[in-house]
Amino acid sequence: MNQNYIIPNQWSIIEEGFEAERVRSSESLFSLGNGAMGQRANFEENYTGETFQGSYIAGIYYPDKTRVGWWKNGYPEYFAKVLNAPNWIGIHVEINNEILDLATCKSIENYRRELNMKEGWYKRSFEAVMIDETRVKVESIRFLSLQIDELGAIRYSVTPLNREAKITFIPYIDAGIENEDTNWEEKFWEPIEILDDELCTSVTARTLKTRFEACTYMHNELAIDSIPINIDKTIHSKVDYIAHSYTHLVAVNSTFTLFKYGGYVTSLNHDRTTLREAAEKVVSIALEAGFDKLLAQQREAWDAIWQMADITIEGDVKAQQGIRFNIFQLNQTYLGKDDRLNIGPKGFTGEKYGGSTYWDTEAYCIPFYMATKDEKVARSLLKYRYNHLEKAIENAEKLGFTNGAALYPMVTMNGEECHNEWEITFEEIHRNGAISFAIFNYLRYTGDYSYIPEMGLEVMIGIARFWHQRASFSTFQNKYVILGVTGPNEYENNVNNNWYTNYIAQWCIQFAIEHIEKVKTGFPEDYSRIMGVTKLTENEIQQWIKVAENMYFPYSEKHGIFLQQDGFLDKPQITVSDLPKEQRPINQKWSWDRILRSPYIKQADVLQGFYFFEDHFSKDLLERHFDFYEPFTVHESSLSPCVHSIQAAILGRMEQAYTFYLRTSRLDLDDYNKEVHEGLHITSMAGTWMSIVEGFGGMRIKEDKMSFEPRIPMQWEAYSFKVNFRGVIVKLTVKHGKVKLLLEGNMPINVILNGEEITLHPNKELEC
Amino acid sequence: MNQNYIIPNQWSIIEEGFEAERVRSSESLFSLGNGAMGQRANFEENYTGETFQGSYIAGIYYPDKTRVGWWKNGYPEYFAKVLNAPNWIGIHVEINNEILDLATCKSIENYRRELNMKEGWYKRSFEAVMIDETRVKVESIRFLSLQIDELGAIRYSVTPLNREAKITFIPYIDAGIENEDTNWEEKFWEPIEILDDELCTSVTARTLKTRFEACTYMHNELAIDSIPINIDKTIHSKVDYIAHSYTHLVAVNSTFTLFKYGGYVTSLNHDRTTLREAAEKVVSIALEAGFDKLLAQQREAWDAIWQMADITIEGDVKAQQGIRFNIFQLNQTYLGKDDRLNIGPKGFTGEKYGGSTYWDTEAYCIPFYMATKDEKVARSLLKYRYNHLEKAIENAEKLGFTNGAALYPMVTMNGEECHNEWEITFEEIHRNGAISFAIFNYLRYTGDYSYIPEMGLEVMIGIARFWHQRASFSTFQNKYVILGVTGPNEYENNVNNNWYTNYIAQWCIQFAIEHIEKVKTGFPEDYSRIMGVTKLTENEIQQWIKVAENMYFPYSEKHGIFLQQDGFLDKPQITVSDLPKEQRPINQKWSWDRILRSPYIKQADVLQGFYFFEDHFSKDLLERHFDFYEPFTVHESSLSPCVHSIQAAILGRMEQAYTFYLRTSRLDLDDYNKEVHEGLHITSMAGTWMSIVEGFGGMRIKEDKMSFEPRIPMQWEAYSFKVNFRGVIVKLTVKHGKVKLLLEGNMPINVILNGEEITLHPNKELEC
What we know:
Chains A, B: Pfam families: Glyco_hydro_65C (PF03633), Glyco_hydro_65m (PF03632), Glyco_hydro_65N (PF03636). The structure is a homodimer. The first copy, chain A, is of the alpha+beta class. The first copy, chain A, has 2 domains: 31-307, Beta-galactosidase, Chain A, domain 5; 374-634, Glycosyltransferase (Alpha/alpha barrel). Chain A is built from 20 helices and 33 strands. In chain A, a hairpin with a 3-residue loop joins strand 2 and strand 3. In chain A, helix 9 (431-446) runs antiparallel to helix 10, helix 9 crosses helix 11 (499-522) and helix 18 packs parallel to helix 20. The longest helix of chain A is centred in the middle third of the chain and has 24 residues, at 499-522.
């Protein structure tokens, strides 16, 4: 059974009633982020129950020791991991000297959390009865400012309900934090300096080894019934911790409020010597505006995002909540402002996957950012990889490749490989294909060719070189084979001739050759620069062609399908429907060997190839492959249901498409994979977006035009979305039987609707 | 180039001249052991150069945290690792207050090490010139007593050569040691008690978690020019350390000698409360005998071993030195006195492989111990696995097997799995086959059927059950397949249908069924007990038969050979001769994926099967497989050359057999695999023994008779060995053209020599 406690709502994520066993899950679901920092929905006040503390700063990581059974040549010495950052949200609260702690107080009533996605804030309220029978009402609202992305703000209020009470607020900063995933109780931050004056209280700390510096700061203000008051404070401090303590005797039904402004300024964005100064500046700006105005600005900033990115669904609140949750979290994670950053699979909501960049960005996230933001954002994501090309070449050299062959890391923070399982690090090489595919996708979508001569072609050449060298000739097959790989389906390791890998390898070579020619003709200066750098020869290209043209693809004549890999048919052909429920998810119930020798597929693999290269295959062929592979697919990767939803929609199987849509859009809200407590699946959220736009909306780029083939699930009355396409914005609305298209822009454009070309005129709704 | 500094000698391992870069290598090569404890050849005195300190106590281990990138279900929470034990050999030496340290003294001359294998002692001597120009001669001799296996003894002498000198001996015990392989600077011992009186100085310490207790003790005596003297001592002690300090002004050419008796008594063999008492007892016995008598006893004990185990080779000193080194080290490691112990791949010479038990014991070591010791020793090794049957069943259950299927661990100390790489732990399941094979081998060799009804059959049933469940039916092949395994050749992981694995799986089932029938008929009481325990049904046996009879074996019609695994022919068919020397050993030069997709074979795999089941295959077939696979084999496992040596001998390729023999017998002495500094390859040394006895001697058991087909390498004038066969001892001597057989025993027996049956009469040499 999936979890089912989130209350359906169009714009908010809501939890009602306190259940200790839901705390870790809700800490993930109610997370906040603003692209520069993030915060799990940990309580401000003390909590001695099960919790997973997480505060994160984008771009701040630590090179952890790699822990493996037996060392293998080529493993990275260290891998970057996201660090739990100093805690700026903490506020200890005492009621008549008793610590407020939801794990120990006498009772909790009217407990409620709300994550308001429309406006970008998170509120929690409850009534607690203390051991001494004092009943207090607590309300806390907080947000991470989109506008001032080094700033967060909290309004924390306590109201005694049955008697006057002595209430103490102890807001603090704590740099003595650990990582949840630290087996060895290591600390990663060393404190440098604590400073404290009327304007700003700060702890500056430095990460070990990477030596990032972060100044974590706070400024506190107090009010009684909304009227500011001054209260003398006591200061407690340790080497990595500072707290202010404010005590006040509060009358019954009177509300004592703490405003805490805080956050991080870091050496990523400031000179080390000016961190404190920068923090003071942020505090000054915050104080000038005040809490209410900052919150109003937050609403405006989110409103601007939703203007473009919102998808509406009528008649199905859960589906509506799901898609908005996905869009909200994607925007909380990455806004495209800083080309050193990327999109970690868990965003700012957990530590798993090290917070680093995976192929998810290229394979799943690029379309969302292309369609809902300025195309510069997608270009910035592509440039991230261009900037890492040299390290990708070094990475390939470590594995024995030569001559500028590039292997992009499976997981990275700064271009270096950050993962150390041989079957992934060394063998899950299809990731390289996604890097080229994203360039293709960007070009197709934006029409911006300039990226290719400027940067993309060098990347494409490095990748083509890798595939050329990685394939080997099989005299037995009289073909080129690619041995020893892990495909997108990570439930198979070290297989030979994974169809997806072989296919994308062939395509990468062909794609590179196509654009070498185009750049040669169209951009001779760039061409000669690139040839100078890469030292590519005609002879080498001929070698590439030999490999691409003679690539082997495993195929079953009997089934008329491409085989996921050599030997797939030797597996017991038992489908998921034969798998007892209590054995799922198999990745939590089965040993690894059992998973590997089963036919079960973690995520789209052959079908991933059909998704990327849709135009290469007929609908019949898609149907045959879908029908063969889907029944073996356990969808235990968050990246699986979205691809299946899109393909089911293409095949006109709307019920199935809808089921997969719910699974992808509510994956975390309903915790399909029993792991939401570890954090959210951020990158797959872009897949959810694709399920609607590409799946139901049938949006494609065909011959430089945008095309739609809209379909609507039975369960919905209507849906709508906007896409930003080459400087214009097109809005599609679908109600049963009717499709509306609206163009925002100045010039008419032609789009293709259900195969027919039509002209859209600016700001004039076209109904068909 | 292999290393080449060990001076050839019939009976000793000798090094001359000090080279700092050889220290770690020699520390391995000159190691001492007595089956109960072991000691790398670390210097007694201080040494600040590169060194790998290692003292080991048999059976004392620690459950270390398993370190893996990402956790996989089924991994052990902890794995046993051998522990570096407290140091009892240490003697700081000061010459005129200057610390004697070979890394810092002014010069070193006449440096010599000798490991005397005939008599079981290790001697080191040198002259050192100190910074103050004092020249001293140092001689140290030490041994670990075979007779009193808790006792070691050192005689350490210093003679000033050019002036009188104030000499200080500071013998100490140090329990504050770490493991070489400890990345995290963890300590594994906690000190409990230090006691010090005239008879005995001791540090008792306890291992963390496993809570073994070891009392490490010493007693020191002094002499000038062999005349005992008393010198007042100073005592230094810390919580885990105690030292005595003796200073004496020594005249030029006078010799100051320290006798240090020390070692361990442990809670494995004594009640915890009596450890100190036990140590005192050992010291008393030692003192009563004195150093010289102890050394004489050591000679006698080794003489008794050599009486039976020696192999002589005439005309080839290096070959002679090699085989004796192998026999010596095997006896230092395991003497068969304690059925809780087994033979770790590195014995007492290093930490790699955790000091635990591998399939090496069953596949390689059993024959040596059967032939050179009482058959009880081999039975004890078999019983070790019987005692672990329950844990092997639990281990299989963790991986999803049921109904008493047993999977023996890949690596173990106490029956629990101690390794955590999925491709090994979960997939290198052929190890299970070796456990059954060893029972077969024991039965064949000793004729002692009693082991089967008493213990062996239960093991065989658990193993047959495992294979039955582990195979799956391929509708594609219409056969049973075994997917996702790692064969003996660990340079292939997660392959399908490894021929060796499938073959031994089939054999294990057939072997079990054969003996279920025999026990049913011959031992009805045991039979009904076993059926009661195992709940085996006729129906289940029928299921086993179905799997065994329909097992799939990969085969190439074109080459007329069994394929190592599915898809082997897709690999680039490039032989080792095409591999540049600087890229070897590939396990140190190549990344793991590159190794995996290469055709290179770490060790005999298909050929291992041909070795085990020699009688199942014709010589022609062997030849074809040898010629196909050997050229791909890099022999980077110590277990590889011996099998190839035997098979080359069978094929009459004496030059090749000889080359492989040298490689196996001098693997460590000449450091073929560039890793001797990590310790010696103990288990493969039994393979070296097989190379001579089974390879050159052609010794086999055929229809309950011993048979010989002797061959002699060109390079040798003669060789001889003895084997203990069912209560009699047969000695074979081969000189060019002549074979002599000598029977030690009371009754005549028939043996087969080159296919002809002949009768041997007691103590009468037969020459052919």
